[in-house]
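Narrative summary of target 7.
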Amino acid sequence: MEDSILKRFGVSMEGHLLRKFDDLVKHKGYENRSEAVRDLVRDALIQHSWEKDEQVVAGSILLFYNHHQKNLLEELTKIQHSMHDNILATTHFHLNHASCLELIIVKGVAKDIQQLSNQLTSLKGVDYGKFTIAPVEKI
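Modeled conformation, tokenized:
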């Protein structure tokens, strides 16, 4: 069966990123990079599976960003105001002179929350974003 046959493909990345990835592979106990990449792909596919879902979910959007980035704060605020019904709370931390961490607690239809996360994490100046969700039981 074609689907069960292992396929090879190449991945290019900067040396410092590869060294950090190799450290992660070792720390997590993977035998090789391929096992780690497969787990990362599976996780991404699971997260992506919610994207078109109508199920109500709750979760968080974690953002690390440089608050000196031109127009970033205005864009973050504009996007959050446009989806205010889905945002339950936000917490903002100043990590150092330039870096901030923002945690946004969200609830709503999965595809809408995923869209909000995508809009926020893709902004120029956002160094890292992580979206986590879980289904909410219907009463």
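The mean pLDDT is 89.
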